[in-house]
Write a structure and sequence with these properties.
alpha/beta, Rossmann fold, seven-stranded mixed β-sheet, 43% helix, globular
Length: 232
């Protein structure tokens, strides 16, 4: 994994992303709950790799059954310092690489993670042996609009994306890594979450209209969508 921006003593990632994306976490947790509702797999142990500030797991802890144990792992000390503030019974956070442990769990969460990983195929193959089921949230960075506006390099510099996907290449990556796709659906953070800029507010209507007509076309042309995937 290219770790420098997450483990840098000067807090490079924290400087670029001071909230560590906590404001999006309740929405992301809702997507996970939706997926579990569509596929009742009833996990008793849930681990999130790259848990950041830990708010996704905190939201799941609040909304799911009381007999589930949640653990978040992150290599960033800055992230774990924030996550530790959310610890409680059945919810803990560790600054270490989950793949270095002997632990196996019922459900592994990788929410906006493997696009940051240098050897992402090796990473995914190793993760495959650590859980019965996995849920991935994968940004679909490749779209006509994102390419024309040169946005890929911005995401590389600001949030550390090293790899870029469409729906088809994201699913093929998981299959090539040994996973069986159980279910998937688009998520539309650009439509569901509050718009931060005037440009993003203007873009909502055409994106919403096209997504209603043809989801695949909207993702490929306008972008701003991600994919939530349940795999085993």
């Amino acid at each position: 994994m290219t770790e420098r921006i997450y483990t840098d003593e000067n807090g490079e990632y924290l400087k670029n992303n001071p909230s560590w994306h906590v404001e999006d976490s309740p929405w992301k947790a809702q997507q996970i709950v939706k997926m579990l509702g569509r596929n009742p797999i009833n996990p008793k142990t849930i681990v999130e790799i790259g848990c950041g500030a830990g708010e996704i797991l905190n939201q799941l802890h609040l909304s799911m059954e009381e007999n589930i144990n949640f653990t978040g792992y992150d290599i960033s000390l800055d992230a774990i310092k924030l996550a530790k503030l959310r610890e409680k019974e059945r919810l803990e956070f560790k600054q270490e690489n989950f793949l270095d442990t002997n632990q196996k769990v019922d459900l592994l969460l990788m929410i906006d993670v493997f696009e940051h990983v240098d050897d992402y195929l090796g990473f995914l193959k190793t993760c495959k042996n650590k859980s019965k089921y996995s849920i991935f949230h994968i940004p679909l960075d490749i779209s006509v609009q994102e390419i024309l506006r040169n946005k890929l390099i911005e995401k590389r510099n600001s949030v550390g994306h090293l790899h870029y996907f469409t729906k088809d290449t994201a699913l093929a990556t998981l299959v090539d890594s040994g996973y069986e796709i159980v279910d998937f659906f688009y998520t539309a953070g650009t439509l569901d979450l509050p718009r931060k800029t005037k440009k993003s507010k203007i873009a909502v209507l055409p994106r919403k209209l096209m997504f209603k007509i043809n989801q695949d076309l909207a993702a490929k042309v306008l972008g701003g969508f991600s994919l939530l995937v349940l795999a085993k």
